Amino acid sequence: VEMYFTARSVQLLAKGVAETIYPGGRPGSEPTLAYFVQQAAQFGTRFFACPTAMLAHGVDAAALSAEVSGQAGAAAFIGRTLDPAWRTLSCCARCRFKADIKPEPGS
């Protein structure tokens, strides 16, 4: 499994951010997003941050969490979608975690 983070979602990959996000919306009631990211990484999921999105949102490569496998953008993702050996699933901008990341105007 590979997960590609683009647009604002690259902020979720910065060190310390996922530790503050509770997917259920209630701090302390269940594991943080970081827990789920770590679990997925232990099962072999590879996480990629879009370098263009990182630049646009001020996320430095040195600030990425240890679970991030590297940087890959739209071309890499499109390459996977065109490869018949791969299956893809994408999530639109309307699918948001309840997080303290302010929506951008027009999003």
Quick structural overview:
By secondary structure, the chain is of the alpha/beta class. The chain is built from 3 helices and 3 strands.
Structure commentary:
The protein has 107 residues and is α/β, with parallel strands linked by helices. Helix content is 23%, strand content 11%. The protein has three helices and three strands, in the order E-H-E-H-E-H. It has helices at 33-42, 51-56, 74-82; strands spanning 2-5, 46-49, 68-71. It has a three-stranded parallel beta sheet with strand order 1-2-3. Helix 1 (33-42) links the parallel strand 1 (2-5) and strand 2. The longest helix has 10 residues, at 33-42. The radius of gyration is 14 Å and the shape is globular.
